[in-house]
Write a structure and sequence with these properties.
Number of strands: 2
Shape: globular
Order of helices and strands: HEEHH
Strand order of the largest sheet: 1-2
Structural class: alpha+beta
Strand content: 5-15%
Radius of gyration: 14 Å
Helix content: 40-55%
Oligomer: single chain
Largest sheet: 2 strands, antiparallel
Distance between the termini: 15 Å
């Protein structure tokens, strides 16, 4: 992803981290900037959210999990 609020050097560092197999880089809720989370932890959390019967839209759950597993 692109991070317009970061310098080129910072954005390059984020992109290098994101290219690794162990981290997922995401935009934080409420526009707080990028966050890094362990890929396995993120996959577990997404799986739990998608299994929750109170989730509003589960149509893209398989797409999210496929994307995570392909990295």
């Amino acid at each position: 992803p692109t991070f317009p609020n970061l310098s080129r050097r910072q954005a390059d560092a984020v992109n290098r981290l994101e290219a690794g197999p162990d981290l997922v880089i995401l935009d934080a809720d409420k526009n707080l900037g990028p966050v890094a989370i362990d890929r396995d932890d993120y996959t577990d959390r997404v799986s739990k959210e998608m299994a929750d019967t109170h989730v509003i839209d589960t149509r893209c759950a398989d797409d999210i999990l496929f994307t995570l597993s392909s990295h």
